[in-house]
Design a protein that fits this description.
Distance between the termini: 48 Å
CATH architecture of the domain at 2-11 and 44-171 and 215-247: 3-Layer(aba) Sandwich
Oligomer: single chain
Strand content: 15-25%
CATH topology of the domain at 2-11 and 44-171 and 215-247: Rossmann fold
Amino acid sequence: MKDSLQHNQPVSPYHIEGKSKKEEVEIMFDNISGKYDLLNRILSLGIDKRWRKKAMKILAEQKPDAILDVATGTADFAISSTSLNPGSVTGIDISAKMLDVGREKIQKAGLSELITLQKADSESIPFEDNKFDAVTVAFGVRNFENLDKGLSEMRRVLAPGGMVMVLEFSKPTKFPFKNIYWLYFDHILPLVGKLVSKDRSAYSYLPESVRQFPDGEAFLQKMQDAGFSDCKQKALTFGIASIYTGIKEVVK
């Protein structure tokens, strides 16, 4: 059964011999960067905008001044975070072409002085310890080659008392929504993705990566193992997605 994929067997977009998952993910996002935002709006029916608003409402309680958005892509989450009136927002991603699209959006929004984007690896974040008041990642942790290392790095650069926030797809469990969800993910999404982006592999990889991702209690345990405390999950839209939060404790 597809639902029983083991978490220790990482899926990758293209299965290119000699390429790591990280390298393939970079190639994939470079390939689809020009159509990524359009497909997101089509395939999510705009629900992703509501999810980001809910995430920002939770993060607002932290009043973060310096925010790091990991796997920022075309910077949607980074742009959303400016609603919190931070002093600075930094976005990192391994795909240069996704960042190019993000920079255009940031410039059009008049946010170039507030948001900085740079090419960087989420599993080797190029910033000093305790630098950011909040670290966010939206629909990116599934793509980490080493999830534990990525979470550890996010905690390292997070200031004591700061919040990590992860917005990610989940696996619905209740009938009939579970069945409708997987019908859509397995058949409609790859077809539309192929027609619009010309890259079927990228949108076949999406449901595979969601199936394999250790969501719910399993991901909360991953966060705790990485050293976060007060880890919580908020399910969204019948369990399609979840907001996970955790705190880096202040050492007394």
